[in-house]
TrEMBL record:
This is tRNA dimethylallyltransferase. The gene is miaA. The lineage of its organism: Bacteria, Pseudomonadati, Pseudomonadota, Alphaproteobacteria, Rhodobacterales. Pfam families: IPPT (PF01715). Its EC number is 2.5.1.75. GO terms for molecular function: tRNA dimethylallyltransferase activity. Keywords: ATP-binding, Magnesium, Nucleotide-binding, Transferase, tRNA processing. It comes from Tritonibacter scottomollicae. Catalyzes the transfer of a dimethylallyl group onto the adenine at position 37 in tRNAs that read codons beginning with uridine, leading to the formation of N6-(dimethylallyl)adenosine (i(6)A).
């Protein structure tokens, strides 16, 4: 897609798999046309991880306004509903929003609406934390299973919690969704479309760069607070680096396992975006 064809007035939404160049594209558009870059990545909201989650660097943040990056403590509760409430006032601010990230649920909540599901009681969440992915999955109804990534534990557990807490399947709640804050007709939606081999090579290089840039220092700083049950501590690369620091893995093993986990995640993202964002404009990064 020719960037010159992107409206300089409509909000821009940039989705895509990890390491596909989304942040660079957002910065290019912001510097060319102005605007504020808004995070739509569930791992980049936490203040404890900049390098590990590939948040924009301080140098990049100095080139254009950035919002909703690294603004939460590692143990703060957060959901698509929290994100939607935070992004709502930014849609009508003085600067055009350029929303970028890899959490597809955030984009769908914004452009298709978000079901108003009651909060999950802590005891049910604790119960869900103890169950395996297989145990969580077997209770879900077929309609809900068709709508979520059944390999993504967080998504499956969320659907299980909704069913357990409300007695209604997640799909039923979604069918009662209110109107969206930003309909697709009111914005430019872009999905990064990458060559598989190019992306996998980039993922491997990027994790090596993260190590050079201080990823281990971030992990050491969180070692005493690390809780694998917390969403912030499930960010790809974090469990692997913690395993290295605890002596369970060598550094090369941690790097390899993190690269594999990232490639698997990117594969799921690509499949999800193809399925749920098939009508969004495709854009290919420069190889």
């Amino acid at each position: 897609m020719d960037l010159d064809k992107i409206s300089s007035e409509l909000p821009v939404l940039i989705a895509g798999p990890t390491a596909s160049g989304k942040s660079a594209l957002a910065l290019e558009i912001a510097e060319r046309d102005g605007g504020v870059i808004i995070n739509a990545d569930a791992s980049q909201i936490y203040d404890c991880w900049r390098v590990v989650t590939a948040r924009p660097s301080p140098a990049d943040e100095s080139r254009a306004p950035h919002m909703l990056y690294g603004h939460l403590a590692y143990d703060a509760p957060y959901s698509a509903g929290h994100w939607l409430r935070e992004v709502a006032p930014l849609l009508t601010g003085p600067k055009r929003p350029i929303i970028v990230g890899g959490t597809g649920l955030y984009f769908l909540a914004l452009t298709e609406g978000l079901a108003e599901i009651p909060a999950t009681p802590p005891q049910i969440r604790t119960e869900g934390d103890r169950l395996s992915l297989e145990d969580l999955s077997k209770d879900l109804d077929p309609r809900t299973a068709d709508r979520i990534d059944m390999q993504n534990r967080a998504r499956v557990q969320r659907a299980w919690e909704v069913l357990r807490a409300t007695g209604r399947p997640l799909a039923d709640w979604q069918d009662d969704t209110p109107p969206p804050l930003l309909p697709r007709t009111a914005c430019t939606g872009l999905v990064m479309e990458t060559d598989k081999e190019w992306l996998e090579a980039r993922i491997r290089r990027r994790f090596a760069q993260m190590l050079d840039q201080g990823a281990l220092d971030e992990a050491r700083a969180m070692l005493e607070r690390y809780d694998p049950a917390l969403p912030s501590c499930k960010a790809i690369g974090v469990p692997e680096l913690m395993a290295y620091l605890s002596g369970t893995l060598s550094l090369s093993e941690a790097e390899e396992q993190a690269s594999i986990a990232t490639r698997q995640y990117a594969k799921r993202q690509r499949s999800w975006f193809r399925s749920r964002m098939s009508k969004w404009a495709k854009i290919t990064p420069e190889l």
